[in-house]
Design goal:
The protein is of the alpha+beta class. The chain folds into two domains: 66 residues; 105 residues, Ribosomal protein S6/Translation elongation factor EF1B (Alpha-Beta Plaits, 2-Layer Sandwich). It has four helices and five strands. Strands 1, 2, 3, 4 and 5 form a five-stranded antiparallel sheet that branches. The radius of gyration is 36 Å and the shape is elongated.
Amino acid sequence: MILPTGSKGRLAALALALSALAAMVAAVAVPAYLLHQRYDAVIAGAEDKIERYRKLAVNRAEQQKAIEVVKAREGARFFLRSTAVNLAGIELTDLVRPLIETNGARLTSIQPATVKEEAGFRLYSLNIGFNATPANLQKTLFALETALPYLFLENLTLRSTVPRGFKPQPNQEPEVSAQLEIQAYGIKEPPRNAKPGAPGAPSAVAAPAGVKS
């Protein structure tokens, strides 16, 4: 490249020198700026974590008391004990059958328990049918609703077993046919080799939405 002579040449040379200098400064300054930005973000994140840990440390005593309160409530007793799906279904069946038969009701049908995932827990459902007098029906429903682990009654259908206008004998009440779905919550089986406090490891049981407290 041939530069013009005279003042124009000097100005052109000065402009080229300044451009080269600016390129050298940019080549050093831009990476340094980006690197400092990255380190500043890391430092800010670490400082934020330290501040949160300090707040947790200050409230540690209160949090420990809250954990002890939750443990004292023995939340696991409100759930089916078995973590295996098939065993929990059998457990639910074995729980429901005596509650019906010991309260004067007569079991007419029972289907295998089904299970689905809900809010981090397993929800087991059991469809049953039974006949009972109005008084025994009330006793049976009360026993089911107050059982431990907690049971939930859904889709209850009541039908009369006698025709309209039927007149029962003295001291003999006609039976009512009941069909309903009984539900119970179960805890998932924790993954093998799960460390305490890790995701999926056993911890204090919190009742899912809709569970009695």
